[in-house]
Specification:
5 helices; mainly alpha; 0% strand; 87% helix; disordered N terminus
Length: 152
């Protein structure tokens, strides 16, 4: 009986991971856009603008997928997602404070440098990107388990 439970657990874990691994083969359109943006303008200011724009695009994507999840979950799961998202927003804000303080400190001890604001912009975008991708994974997994078509 324990072996069957472990096998079932492995299947429930592997299916979403397999779906996510397939997604990694094709980059998310926002990642493609960000790469193209940085190729067009590889200056420090250009890269900062690309990263800041990517963060906005990821935030839009995050909110779009959050709404899809909220439209398709049961009440308990909706409540849990809502609370988790509220806590994530608090985390995001604190993470942005850390990123700002960290790169300001590095900038100061290194005596300046144009790359540190660029690194900070990229780090902020990555925080939002990771959350958006996490919600996308949840939504994709929900569709696998419910048999719904992927209407993302």
């Amino acid at each position: 009986m324990m072996g069957k439970k472990l096998l079932l657990l492995a299947v429930f874990i592997a299916v979403p991971l397999f779906a996510h691994a397939q997604d990694k083969e094709s980059e998310h359109p926002i990642d493609v856009w960000t790469s193209q943006c940085m190729e067009k303008d590889g200056s420090t200011m250009g890269m900062i603008q690309c990263s800041d724009s990517a963060a906005v695009l990821w935030d839009i994507e995050l909110n779009r997928v959050y709404k899809l999840l909220m439209d398709n979950l049961g009440e308990d799961a909706k409540s849990a997602l809502r609370e988790a998202q509220r806590e994530w927003i608090k985390f995001r804000d604190k993470e942005f404070e850390l990123i700002s303080s960290y790169y300001t400190y590095i900038y100061e001890i290194m005596g300046g440098g144009t790359m540190y604001p660029m690194l900070a912009a990229g780090a902020r975008a990555e925080v939002v990107r990771k959350r958006a991708l996490a919600l996308i994974s949840l939504y994709d997994e929900l569709n696998i388990h419910t048999g719904n078509s992927d209407d993302r």
